């Protein structure tokens, strides 16, 4: 560790120590000196054990296994909350006034434009790109945030206290009050149950997403755009248009019904109403504040005429808006109570223009009358929020599995005596669908009574048809593979009377689907009717989670890269613009990792100013949970998309492509050789990880499996990743990759690999992500889980997996020519090390509790709750659930 890194790390340690000390005092007050001493003793022993002290490890294990039932929950809670506070301290450190340049960017907006405008690029091209950016961040609830919303709010308040205490001008009394508030917050956190009593509903998840906007993004969006505008004006003399919004937000919370029977058309309607209600509430608050500010009398002719020479023309307009917003809130309250109120829409904010046009009138009047300084205050902030959030807050995507749509058509064709649609070949399906899409008569007879599952799909399409275009985003089809999968949805929407041309988006998820994506889209875009429907814009979603679960991370990444290249070519030939939608998770095994690096590693031409990306679960809080953090994240996304558009990465050399193809083919063989072909793999997985127990944790509304009686193939990517991160083997994020890299080195391609790592962003990102997961992996801990939980006859598989892990680590170190992993990112490496002495005891306790719950017919409530707390604590320490 360099001296500079050590200094930076000392600053973080200071805050971690400060919060930890207060937590210790809280525990001491609640449970006494003896309990605190035991916690501290185990922490010290865990740290010594990390340094190879076997005696300390044995002593720690003895203490953990001897914990009485009544101490299990508080002990797990102690280490869990320390890890949450460590996360808060690190999060705060990146936005601290004392933040070191190695850790964060003091002004990410300035860096963004500096990188763009200090090159040979024409400034006009940079500004044009900025004005036309279309970055859509899609908030999703899976994996859902493991922390309860009430705790998240308390964590944010802790950050506020830390920020306040950085002020060197605080008096002794003010500092004392701030510390008291910090102690109160940590006491509240300690005495709050971390585990939800019940699994959240889809509506609960949607409300959680809205709270992120209300507490952070509502402020961050105008802050970001103001900083961005200031930099543009400073460097180019121009200003951004009022309505520009490089980044906007959509959501899957309450719209994603793929494998989730709890997301119904009724739920989706409620979520749409709640989204709109939240927007109306926040705009009302802004309008009330603006009423206090715009007290001036002078106005331009248009405003003067509209307000009939009022002495307070601005306030007259704002009072009307205030009334309309209040009426809108009352109307939506009634709907949320299950009523169906009749109302005059002219008395509500019904369309975006109902709010936008009056505010633009006020802005133009102020500007015309020489009061631009006033216009560019709160009024401009509201206009920019409108550009980003509209009046619906979040555009809601609908997602459903392809088979559910085909089942509707099949049931209908059987009813009509036309045969079984599901038994037709692809050409017959397309011919039928196109005939019905271009025909005049309705297909669905009035007296048809479909089965419950089919009726629910029809109800969802009817719901879509009734919504304003701006309330909804895309209709995403999971497990899409054929043109008929898209045409089926279009026919169902037509039959429902949908007049808004909703984007219907195929999601290519498995390895085979990714490899067939270009052929599918070519066939679709060769259909004249369909190409006309697209109106020159085609959206395609690339799946990361299921492709990685299907083929391993290395083969999946290459398949995703090649699919994007081919889709770019297909759309270019068809003369339609391509919008790629990246279905990433938070973890490496689900396509996660630093967003900036991920975007810059995409194939040249695949971004082109447009991108959609999922932001999932706890990553939403880590990136957008605080206004300053959110501004940084917005700047990083904007920067990356501009850079990928204006300064795209180089086309990979043929030698690189050939090498990568060989690596992909070999990695999928290594991966599937274990996951699919090793007969002991499934029993080993279920025994060595808490996969079964995870189903009992009330994490999200979605079931863990698509099919209740299915095996690994039906297991969702989230519990698949989550389970392996709990026993610290991190297997899905590396299996197959290191072995294939070693195969390439054995073929004499090591120098070629080094060239690829140095010159090809795609490959460099893959190696960087591997380094990160190898650093987080703990084979000795995984072996301990095995020794406690797995039958001896299965131990041979654990030994093989740990050998594969070490082989991969050696292969990467040989490639990078480094002596340790992540040597180029010391901060990230030290961040992992900081948490280990606190995660390790939770892991050891978890194995003991897993053994107890599997031994006992009815384990005690304390044992079950403590187990859930260890799962939550390890997730907090690893900083991802999956």
TrEMBL record:
<keyword id="KW-0460">Magnesium</keyword>
<dbReference type="InterPro" id="IPR021135">
    <property type="entry name" value="PEP_COase"/>
</dbReference>
<keyword id="KW-0456">Lyase</keyword>
<dbReference type="InterPro" id="IPR033129">
    <property type="entry name" value="PEPCASE_His_AS"/>
</dbReference>
<feature type="active site">
    <location>
        <position position="142"/>
    </location>
</feature>
<dbReference type="InterPro" id="IPR015813">
    <property type="entry name" value="Pyrv/PenolPyrv_kinase-like_dom"/>
</dbReference>
<protein>
    <recommendedName>
        <fullName>Phosphoenolpyruvate carboxylase</fullName>
        <ecNumber>4.1.1.31</ecNumber>
    </recommendedName>
</protein>
<feature type="active site">
    <location>
        <position position="549"/>
    </location>
</feature>
<comment type="similarity">
    <text>Belongs to the PEPCase type 1 family.</text>
</comment>
<dbReference type="InterPro" id="IPR018129">
    <property type="entry name" value="PEP_COase_Lys_AS"/>
</dbReference>
<comment type="subunit">
    <text>Homotetramer.</text>
</comment>
<keyword id="KW-0120">Carbon dioxide fixation</keyword>
<dbReference type="InterPro" id="IPR022805">
    <property type="entry name" value="PEP_COase_bac/pln-type"/>
</dbReference>
<dbReference type="Pfam" id="PF00311">
    <property type="entry name" value="PEPcase"/>
</dbReference>
<comment type="function">
    <text>Forms oxaloacetate, a four-carbon dicarboxylic acid source for the tricarboxylic acid cycle.</text>
</comment>
